[in-house]
Recover the amino acids of this structure.
């Protein structure tokens, strides 16, 4: 596993922005479609986008036969379920009953779940004290940012189940990132397109059986679906695979500290929401935690840039 590069860091920040905005767009999309149909639309659009790019570039899908092909497609299946179909549905369903702030807190759990998994399964991903302290500080920052109101009960129906669904989504993302890192060598565009395609093939028939097709989809919901399908699903899947395959799942998990930050910023700028109290202190904690956990990678990056 190579140290994170400047491109890895650029992708990481970009993903934080893209996924941070997705919470707002999920809420808008749910005004016109159910959670299963939402996931099906996202995955179908993302899969078609990446499949088109993959075949135009001559990459296509991963090989079906030959050495390692079976393991590659087993990883593709796991990625399609754990990194796409299942967590998308769990978050979409959960956001019908809990505040989006709670979903943001749950995403900060992903790095803590990745740490022990990477320690045992990923070469070079061993956990050490400084990395653990950095992740814990970053998680505290996210909790401060969201505030105590996000953790308060509202009395809504299915609220407890929805909270468990959001936590389960975080666990899915953690396991999916480890599987992505352990997948045998294969073209990243092919792998991304295959994972989205498998997820779409699994969830679409279920959505068509269990939820009706929208009869009156507003322009607002349609635009939200287009955003979710193209950016946080299609393009983001390619960026995610690129980061995990080159810099590892522990580095990739840092994106989960940014998502709540961007959610707050976009809410203030676009929806005119009030800036939460303690946001500056929370931002400082998050950035300090990220820097501490990746101190070695930051030093190597700056040294490499100085040499060039």
């Amino acid at each position: 596993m190579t140290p994170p590069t400047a491109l890895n860091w650029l992708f990481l920040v970009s993903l934080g922005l893209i996924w941070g905005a997705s919470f707002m767009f999920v809420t808008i999309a749910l005004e016109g479609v159910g959670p299963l149909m939402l996931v099906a639309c996202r995955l179908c659009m993302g899969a078609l986008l990446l499949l088109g790019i993959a075949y135009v570039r001559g990459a296509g899908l991963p090989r079906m036969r030959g050495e390692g092909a079976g393991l590659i497609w087993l990883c593709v299946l796991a990625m399609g379920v754990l990194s796409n179909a299942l967590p998308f549905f769990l978050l979409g369903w959960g956001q019908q009953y809990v505040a989006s702030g709670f979903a943001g807190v749950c995403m900060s759990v992903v790095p803590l779940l990745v740490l022990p998994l990477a320690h045992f399964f990923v070469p070079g991903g061993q956990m050490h004290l400084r990395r653990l302290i950095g992740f814990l500080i970053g998680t505290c920052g996210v909790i401060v940012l969201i505030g105590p109101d996000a953790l308060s009960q509202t009395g809504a129906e299915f609220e407890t189940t929805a909270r468990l669904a959001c936590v389960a989504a975080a666990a899915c993302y953690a396991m999916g990132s480890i599987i992505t890192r352990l997948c045998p060598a294969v073209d990243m565009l092919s792998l991304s397109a295959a994972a989205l395609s498998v997820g779409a093939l699994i969830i679409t028939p279920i959505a068509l059986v269990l939820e009706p097709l929208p009869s009156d989809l507003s322009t607002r919901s349609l635009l939200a679906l287009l955003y979710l399908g193209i950016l946080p699903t299609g393009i983001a899947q390619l960026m995610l695979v690129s980061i995990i395959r080159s810099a590892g799942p522990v580095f990739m998990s840092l994106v989960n500290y940014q998502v709540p930050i961007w959610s707050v910023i976009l809410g203030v700028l676009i929806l005119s929401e009030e800036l939460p109290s303690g946001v500056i202190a929370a931002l400082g904690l998050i950035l300090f935690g990220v820097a501490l956990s990746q101190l070695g990678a930051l030093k190597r990056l700056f040294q490499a840039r100085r040499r060039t």
About this structure: The chain has one domain: 6-307. The chain has a mean pLDDT of 82. The CA atoms of residues 144 and 282 lie 5 Å apart.
